[in-house]
């Protein structure tokens, strides 16, 4: 319960922090980049969708099945395509936004702790490369995990929970991407970040899941979710790092 309260309180408090740290302008830039990327990917998806769907229908030989079974398989193929599209879109968006969100996380840290950071261009390039590395690894793991989950869709009753399992998988890795902005600033190596994530997986899962819920709010979600989640997750991660320094505080 403490973990849930910490995450929910941080998301609730994020709007106050955004106002006090003068970060309102960062609602718009992620949103504009997100809309542009969405339009580009939709255009590419329309070019490829018919060919891919026809190929999949040919592979599964849907015409041989009963009409109802054929419809169900087509729906399954469509659901998989939607999830894969979201995975590619979200991963590319967070990769493009990593310099911006890394800076936002730094500003939030300074606002909450009073610490001052003076990163050089070399430091920023290092952060960008690490963000790309973490994003790419997360993308591959999510892709493999999604494929494994979809294979389980043929197993009853596991198939009834497929959407929930994919939602939780997405939330887990998305939350880690946001937590890593703070971890890299506190000089956690990629290996140390993964170890931290394993210990705090619940927080990563919850932060990433809230991001997904915010992101799917029509239109405003694309402006709201990146900034609010970055601010809230930074606050959560700082609290978790502080707790690790003082083990007597029960997590």
UniProtKB/TrEMBL annotation:
One of its GO terms (molecular function) is high-affinity sulfate:proton symporter activity. Its main location: membrane. GO terms for biological process: cysteine biosynthetic process; sulfate assimilation. It comes from the Bacteria. It is a multi-pass membrane protein. It is found in: Membrane. One of its GO terms (cellular component) is plasma membrane. The keyword DNA-binding does not apply. Keywords: Amino-acid biosynthesis, Cell inner membrane, Cell membrane, Membrane, Sulfate transport, Transmembrane, Transmembrane helix, Transport. InterPro entries: CysZ-like, CysZ/EI24. This is CysZ protein.
């Amino acid at each position: 319960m403490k973990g849930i309260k910490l995450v929910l309180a941080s998301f609730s408090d994020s709007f106050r922090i955004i106002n006090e740290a003068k970060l309102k302008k960062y609602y718009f830039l992620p949103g504009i980049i997100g809309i542009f990327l969405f339009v580009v990917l939709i255009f590419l998806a329309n070019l490829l969708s018919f060919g891919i769907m026809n190929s999949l229908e040919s592979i599964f030989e849907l015409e041989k099945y009963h009409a109802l079974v054929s419809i169900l398989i087509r729906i399954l193929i469509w659901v998989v395509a939607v999830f894969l599209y979201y995975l590619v879109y979200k991963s590319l968006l967070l990769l493009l936004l990593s310099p911006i969100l890394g800076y936002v996380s730094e500003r939030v840290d300074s606002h909450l702790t009073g610490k001052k950071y003076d990163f050089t261009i070399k430091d920023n390039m290092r952060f960008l490369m690490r963000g790309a590395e973490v994003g790419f690894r997360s993308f591959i793991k999510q892709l493999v995990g999604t494929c494994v989950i979809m294979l389980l869709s043929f197993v009853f009753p596991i198939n009834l929970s497929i959407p929930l399992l994919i939602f939780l998988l997405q939330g887990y890795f998305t939350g880690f991407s946001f937590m890593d902005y703070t971890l890299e600033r506190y000089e956690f190596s990629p290996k140390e970040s993964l170890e931290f994530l394993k210990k705090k997986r619940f927080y990563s899962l919850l932060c990433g899941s809230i991001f997904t819920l915010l992101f799917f709010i029509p239109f405003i979600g694309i402006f709201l979710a990146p900034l609010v989640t970055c601010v809230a997750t930074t606050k959560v991660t700082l609290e978790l790092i502080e707790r690790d320094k003082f083990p007597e505080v029960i997590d």
